[in-house]
Amino acid sequence: MEPSPKDGESAAAAEPSRGGTAPSSGVVVQVREKKGPLRAAIPYMPFPVAVICLFLNTFVPGLGTFVSAFTVLCGARTDLPDRHMCCVFWLNIAAALIQILTAIVMVGWIMSIFWGMDMVILASKYGYKEQGIPQQL
Question: Which parts pass through the membrane (predicted)?
């Protein structure tokens, strides 16, 4: 008795190939990251500002996140377009306070460094392109 193919497989894909190579099944998988409200509140900043925030977060946990909160008030976009600017500002301040208060047990320091790396990643992907400024670094 042969096993039946699974839901996503075709009968041809379940049979062994005679040519030595397996046929392509053509399945396309899309992965989308779901961000929480604190993570989605990270602003899209210009690249040099994001690097400065990463540097600050590396040596003084939460300071770069605190500075990035003020970029929201200066017009930096976030992944929370339905929330008011002041709400996003306070979410960033809350993230900075969490990083500062938990830095004693190293959790906040590690979180702060990863937060700064996310700022740099967002700035390198979206910072200049969506603002119409040519990237010349």
Answer: 47-76, 88-115
